[in-house]
Amino acid sequence: MMKRVALVMSLCLAPSVYAEDEVADVWKAKCKSCHGDDGKAQTKMGKKESIVDMSQVAWQAAESDADIRQAIADGSPRNTKMKAFKDKLTAAQIDALVGYIRTMKAK
Ligand code: HEC
Questions:
Q1: Are 87 and 75 in contact (CB under 8 A)?
Q2: Among 18, 50, 52, 69, which lies 20 to 30 A Cα-Cα from 39?
């Protein structure tokens, strides 16, 4: 009986835990090479392309969630290095990345 309760509980908890893990994995696989682990873009590409430091409070304030979502989905009109990800990621993954980028804001 206890076993069954534990199983049901782990099934209920799994999706949210998984979602958090997954967004971090997506960032590592598809974004980190240019934007860095922490969004500060202290990478070769980041320096070469002068990619913005996403942890900056001013950047976080200036960009709406819709702005960030659009940059990820459609890429940047100013720099083709920032490609459109709408065919590579699901809408839910893009939304999760917006949330993930919000967690990078400097404290
Ligand atoms: C090949 C390098 C590269 C990769 C990989 C990359 N980006 Fe970018 N990204 C850029 C560059 C360069 C810019 C700057 C574009 C500009 O100045 O308009 C940028 C800009 C952005 C912006 C907008 C910043 C602004 O101020 O408008 C967001 C948001 C963003 N990237 C998110 C992501 C996410 C999320 C991923 C992974 C799914 C990703 N990027 C992957 C190079 C990259």
A1: no
A2: 18
- Residues 34-55 have pLDDT tens digits of 999 999 999 999 999 999 999 9
User: What predicted TM-score, i.e. pTM, was given to this entire model?
Assistant: 0.87
Class for the domain spanning 17-102: mainly alpha
Helix axes 65-74, 91-102, angle to 10 degrees: 130
Taking the centre of ligand 1 as the mean of its atom positions, its distance from the CA of residue 16, in whole angstroms, is 26
**The two structure tokens encoding residue 78:** 């100013």
Domain-wise residue ranges, the chain: 17-102
Q: How far is the CA of 35 from the centre of ligand 1 (A)?
A: 7
Q: For the chain, what is the mean pLDDT?
A: 91
Alpha helices in 1-107 (DSSP H): 2-30, 32-35, 44-48, 57-62, 65-74, 91-102
